[in-house]
Amino acid sequence: MRLDLTQKYDLRLPRYTSYPTAPHFSPAVGAETYAAWLAAMAPDTPLSLYLHIAYCAEMCWFCGCHTKITQRYAPVADYLDALLKEIALVAERLPSRMKARHVHFGGGSPTILSPEDFLKTMDFLRARFVIAPGAEVAVELDPRTADQAYVAAMAKGGVTRASIGVQDFNPKVQQAINRIQPYEVSKRVIDWLRKAGIAGINMDLVYGLPFQTAESVVETIEQAVGLGPQRIALFGYAHVPWMKKHQRLIPEETLPDVPERWRQYEWASRRLVELGYVAVGLDHFAKPDDELALALKEGRLHRNFQGYTTDSAGSLLGFGASGIGALDQGYVGNEGGIDAYKRIVREGKLATTRGIAITDADRLRRAIIERLMCDLAVDLDRVCAAHKADAGQFAPALASLAPLAGDGVVTIEGRRIRVTDDGRPLVRAVCAAFDQYLKAGEQRHSKAV
Fold this sequence. Notes:
By secondary structure, the protein is α/β, with parallel strands linked by helices.
């Protein structure tokens, strides 16, 4: 990676897990709108379900998630009771008992649930949705709080994939982010998962953390690969202390500067490829025989709020405080405050407090951005033909990419755009050329790399 690009294009840009992105949601779309959208859904629409478990046992200082800390189980049980009520309220508004092909537990930390409550939740879902045979059921897992009984419950509940939060194996880095998690702890949980028959193992790593160097990140990469995960996500730490006040506990002078962040990304990415992983989009890596790598190869990779995915379901229903859903008509977001969320649901109301209705123009731009994020390439003529739209409307966007083309970030042939190898970490800057909403919310996003 050329050093001059690290300085020129280190912009604050969306991660494009949706389009339009979350900063543009508004109260104009609320519970009444969501109810109408649910009722209008075709009964044969395949669904994905996302459950947000909004509690952790302790705060990791680098965390950007919506979570609350508790050492007691009573608040977790009370929250789960509200979550199940919301699931029932949403299911009642659907035209039928619909089929779900993907189920994802995120957080917070889903492993804060008791094994019994995890199984209770899976049974509750199966009573209200048809969980398709072969459906992917994924759980984000904190090795510090998951025990063997919980892993056994995951297996019994039909979990097929676990995403292991690791971040970094270096003790100094772990101390600096308040996440003490020795290598042996992660290895033990992965061994339990495999013994229980849960073969899909993802691992989340982070660069740009305090005291990291390119050399130390590569060392963590090599340790992680030694545990044999099918997928590795390599995220850049987003330092946004104005949004996440606990991040102020990380002294800014301990963070790598922009050139060092890029070096960490470049070295780690190169090492993962050397070790046999396929680079998938911006920040994912998968073994060549993994479904994610195969989807990339076959042009059927997608991107949603959970990142890169093989999920092609028509609608995503999000449950829990701050949960986000995606339907054909637009996006919906739940109340983020846990107490307010519980109160709304217990009044028998949907928890949706914000969202955005999307237009055909939004759907077209979303398709272009998704192909860029997933394939690092897009044929504007082909996408526009599929949407019965005129590709000529994107002449200004193509013209705005000229500086990126001049710097070797993209190549442009007619209306075909391809992100170069050097440009991969800057793909979000390429997508931004097609984002009509960006200007008002651009300062509320994390850095591009």
